[in-house]
Amino acid sequence: MEKHWWHTATIYQIYPKSFMDSNGDGVGDLQGIISKLDYLEKLGITAIWLSPVYQSPMDDNGYDISDYEAIADIFGDMSDMEELIEQAHQRGIKIIMDLVVNHTSDEHAWFVEAKNNPHSEKRDFYIWRNEPNELVSTFSGSAWEFDEQSQQYYLHLFSKKQPDLNWENEVLRHKIYEMINFWVDKGIGGFRMDVIDLLGKLPDQLIKENGPKLHDYLKEMHQYTLAGKDLLTVGETWGATPEIAKRYSNPDEKELSMVFQFEHIGLQHKENRPKWEYIKELDVPALKMIFNKWQTELKLGEGWNSLFWNNHDLPRVLSIWGNTGEYREKSAKALAILLHLMRGTPYIYQGEEIGMTNYPFESLSELDDIESLNYAKEALDLGQSEAVIMDNIRMIGRDNARTPMQWNTEKNAGFSTSDETWLPVNPNFTLINVEEAVSNPNSIFYTYQKLVNLRKEKSWLIDADFELLETEDKVFAYRRYTDEESYLVVVNLSDEEQSFSIDVDYIEIIISNTDEAVIINNHCLAPWDAFCVKIR
Ligand code: NOJ
């Protein structure tokens, strides 16, 4: 198998509005990110996935783009962007841009022209119908919005300010490839591709994901933009199975490097119910089955996994599956050890490396996210109590992951000098912050740093096969092995002791969040114990 830089890389996701504010307006920006590159270099990451920084009216925080080749004023300008690419590069860090090409903003020049002039070439860049059908938007309500001027409806699978692009239009497709090349020429390291599995949609047949032409489009995109360049591309694909993931990520297919699959995240929700009906208790046996499937079915050379617990759309993993009290640090390390030693490219979401948690939101007025606000409005209209709605948002709402990064114990956790920040700072910043983490050699930060470095140093993390081991329900244990060497990873995913016994003849501790005695005794795991050992 041909090796690429992203096989040994760990990627760090930055949500620009919340990372670091350099100009005191309460919103993060590009100069803020530049000022924190030394910190990211210390963590050891190879690339930054930057959530959108393009020009945008910010209806969905930049996932509604009005100009793909300009930077939003709140973040800086193109020279700041070029400086970020260059400064990151000097520290061995690549920039992965977020490519949002399922839709644009309704303020994009293409849509403005399409709307104002139904006879323009741009009209067909979007999807217009005389009658709506029952397709619904991810952000509540119908996916069709009536345009008075032309007396037609346009499709928006997200907010009505995010009209869907019509990928059947060849001119449009080539305009997008030109834009991709504009960014490739700036020296970036690749793209994270937003809801990429929606590109082949057939709205008249109510088909959203995995439409028949999806892979043709991706192959064409590859041919005109990515071919011959060693870029990382990761597609956001909520509906992927291992079979589908292979179509995207098998190198012979010439589409993408890897996809984000969300099957494990599915355990946070009731099946076939709205996402707001969450399940807090982690079903460990189900989690084991899911990871086992992905680890064994995406064989080396046939496809590649991405590994993540968090992103800007998900709750903080410690708040839903970890422990935010007594075992906060230990559970954070345990979850990291479990994930980062599997096969795939790991992603760290900003603040995960210091154990940040969900925010104690108490009222709707503290929220920003369009998805949560639309949900609350709809649920209130249906007569649901605000208490229940707030409980759901406190656990599952996207703003939890988006509160400002906690740097130190100063005003606004050192994120901004402004009197008001765009989302409130989590009050636990006095305890949970970067300064504290970096000064404490036993902190979560150093567990992540070690995992990031292991990935660069140990080729078995790429090559070794995966075998799930039979254990107590709440214990997740697996073996990674090649012809020459074998490693055992054991994690107690619970607040209770678990009995445990595996025939280990261990040679060396690779990483652990517990005492060596636990490994030697080999019969009982304390809450959230986790370790990896090289075995004979
Ligand atoms: C997925 C992104 O991660 C999310 O934040 C966004 O709202 C939707 N796609 C629409 O772009």
List of distinct ligands in this structure? 1-deoxynojirimycin
Largest sheet: 8 strands, parallel
| Overall shape | globular
Termini separation comes to 27 Å
The fraction of residues assigned to DSSP E strands is 15-25%
In the CATH scheme, what's the topology name of the largest domain?
TIM Barrel
**Would you report the number of β strands?**
20
Strand order of the largest sheet: 11-10-9-5-2-1-13-12
| Overall average residue pLDDT | 97
Low-confidence stretches: none
> Which CATH class of the largest domain applies here?
Alpha Beta
Compute the number of structural domains. 3
Alpha carbon gyration radius? 23 Å
CATH superfamily heading of the largest domain: Glycosidases
Q: Which structural class fits the helix and strand makeup?
A: alpha/beta
Helix content: 25-40%
Could you describe the 3D structure shown?
The protein is an alpha/beta fold and 536 residues long. The chain has three domains: 5-102 and 170-359 and 403-451, TIM Barrel, CATH 3.20.20; 109-155, Oligo-1,6-glucosidase, Domain 2 (Oligo-1,6-glucosidase, domain 2), CATH 3.90.400; 465-535, Immunoglobulin-like (Sandwich). 30% of the residues lie in helices and 16% in strands. It has helices at residues 16-19, 30-35, 37-43, 78-90, 109-116, 170-185, 214-226, 242-249, 284-297, 317-320, 328-340, 370-381, 386-396, 434-439, 444-457, 460-463, 516-521, and strands at 11-14, 47-50, 54-55, 67-71, 94-99, 128-129, 144-147, 152-155, 190-193, 232-236, 258-260, 306-307, 345-349, 465-468, 475-481, 486-492, 498-499, 506-512, 524-525, 530-535. The strands form five sheets. Strands 11-10-9-5-2-1-13-12 form an eight-stranded parallel β-sheet. A hairpin with a 6-residue loop joins strand 14 and strand 15. It is globular. It starts with 10 loop residues before the first strand and ends with a strand. The mean pLDDT is 97. It binds 1-deoxynojirimycin. 1-deoxynojirimycin is lined by residues 60, 63, 100, 158, 194-195, 236, 312-313.
